[in-house]
Amino acid sequence: MPTSDFTTAGPAKQQTRLDNLAAVQQSSILWSRKNKNLHFDWGETAGRLAPTLHLLREHDALGPDATFIGFDLPDSQHILDECEDQYGTHDAKWVAQDLMTALRTHNPFPNMGVLVWDSCDAARGQTVQRHLDTLIPFAQRQESRLGSFLLVINVSLFRVHKGADQYVRGIRRHLPTFDPDTAFHRYRSEGRQNDMLLTRLRFGF
User: Could you count the other beta carbons within 10 Å of the beta carbon of residue 163?
Assistant: First the structure.
């Protein structure tokens, strides 16, 4: 099975985190230009050591009403426990649950303005297609609720020889005017065998 990119170090992956933060700063609804911090929660697949939370703290990016929500599947509880031991809970929440099931049945994160989803599946896979059918409607609902939303999806290009056409079609089922030329970013982290395809979808800005 292709491996998702949870690498904590290296310039390629770290640049994607910086670019995600820069994208949020383009929204005056998500980002306070006066105080230079987030109005709403930032959710992300935590990974070991939750490097994005470290970055957000370095930039003082979490406003008084914003929390970092790090999530993973229940069988990865030990990873979340390590994150909690390192960072605590004063500006972070660690959630072990099947996010896709939760988002389809109810909204456990009404204050979330950013969601970064690292998938462990290939762009052409059926699992990713099902995830798109959950993630994009959630983002659209959050845009209606908050006025703006940033959805970042990171998938593997493992054994994808004809580009990401199926992946693009899956996005366009929900967003007919989607332009991959402006939303896609392809990169490869140090020591990895497969390229990653990162997609930033902006809602309301």
Answer: 13
- Whether residue 9 is predicted with pLDDT greater than 60 in this model: the reply is no
Phi, psi dihedrals of residue 46, rounded to the nearest 5°: -65, -50
Residue 126: other Cβ atoms inside 10 A: 11
pLDDT in tens, 11-51: 899 999 999 999 999 999 999 999 999 999 999 998 888 99
Q: How far apart are CA 125 and CA 108, in angstroms?
A: 27
Residues 6+ apart with CB under 8 A from 58: none
| Beta pairing class for 92-96 and 112-122 | unpaired
Does CATH place domain 12-24+42-54+70-121+131-203 in 1.10.3470? no
For 192, the token pair is: 């990895």
Q: Tell the residue number behind the tokens 């959050």, with chain if given.
A: 142
